[in-house]
Every structure is written in structure tokens, then in C-alpha cells.
Here is the input.
Amino acid sequence: MSRCFAPGSRASARPSAMTTPTVTEQRRDLAAALRLAARFELNEGICNHFSVALPDGPDGRPRYLINPYGVHWSEMRPSDLLLIDEHGQVLEGEGEVEATARNIHVAAHKANPRHVAVLHVHMPYATALTMVEGGRLEMAHQTACRFHGRTLYQDHFGGLALDEGEGEAIVAANREQGHADITFLAHHGVTIGGPSVAVAFDDLYFLERACRQQVLAMSTGRPLKLIPNDEIEATAREWRQVLVYQATKHFEALRRMEGL
Here is the structure.
């Protein structure tokens, strides 16, 4: 079975410890991720949001970078990103923080501190799975195995997240299942968390492809042919071995496409 993994032996493909990027690099990566999401049509108008948790400020308070409301993702520049505090108040930059951005992202970062980057989208195929009864990402393709044991399903629709209630629901769910990096939100979309923008965006990209493959297969009306459990576990382990390495290389190549 052919798999898109890093070249060389398994040992050489193991990711090394990631270095902490500077704020300038975080701005560059987050702007690139937003522009790339628009290129791949993963965004929805000027809605949805990407954020990055930065080291605490001099006063010891949390700080985050997030895209401002009203700037289209295809035109996002590093300087457009807003620096906000844990209450969604703008500390640096010009623009508005959408209420849903504040409630979803700050809550998600607090719920799982290992998620340096949090990406929230309504991308078509992943969102489609949140719209069908019992919708789940099924282990019927090797790409889906990348997410085995890493997904969380919030089956209650909490509205547009215009108040803190939906954010608190996300916090509660993520604290209970701290292993999850991918959260499917019923009738809504998905939220993806990762240790870096590169890893989170790589998950975003491949999650949509995995969901598209499943939706296309389901559209035939034939039952899905699921992978045996032992092969699912083995393939998931292989993905974990190369995830950071492959994600970093992929994102570097994609970022060059945007000139960043």
C-alpha cells in the first residue's frame, strides 16, 4: 500500500523537537495559513478564524494573534493580524474581533494549552459530516487513519457562539478528551488544534480531503469498506511518526506559493 510519508527510514523520518518561533514568524505563518485556506476554498466569506497562542505578556496575561473581522483571507497580511488578550480585547492592531472568534478561540486555547494554533472553519466536506445523523469520519482510507484516536464529536448544536456559552461547551468537551485535536461541531463546522500553525494547517488540509473521499464514496450508495482494526492502528502509528516532519515540509512549500 502506497502512503505519502517522508522519505528515508522510519528513524530518520521521526520529527525533532520543534523550536519556538518568534512573534514575527507566527504572524507570517498565520497570515499564510489564512491565504492558503482561501486558495483551497476552505473559508466561508469573511467569517471563521485562525488563532495562535503567544507566550504570556510582561504582565503575565495570555496573548493571542487572530484575524480581524472584515479582512478577506485571500488578502491577509502579517500586519493585519490582531494581538488580543484572554477577554478578546485588542492590544495591538486595528480592527474588530468577531464575537464568535473570541468565544471559540480563547476557549479552545484554554481548554487544551498544547494547541498553540487553533483553526476554525466551515469547510464543505468536513462540515457535511456534521450535518448527517451519526456523521463520523470513518476509517475507510489511509488518510482518515491519520486522525484515528484524535477526533472529538460535539453532537449538540449550540448556535452561532455569539455568547460565551458555546465556548464553555467546547472547553468542557476538550478537557474531558484532551487527546483530541479535531473537533466536529454538529451543524456547524470543525475546529483543529495543533502545536504549530504548520501542523494544524496540514491537519486542516488532509482532514478535508479525507472527508471528501468519504462523501464521494458514500454518494455511490454502496457501503463503505472499512479498514481492519489492526491496520488502522498500524497506519495511525506511521502517521504519528512523520506528522510534524511532513507537515513542516508541506507548509514550507505552500508558504512559498504565497510568497511568505
Notes: The mean pLDDT is 88. Strands lie at 49-54, 63-66, 82-84, 90-92, 117-121, 151-154, 182-185, 189-194.
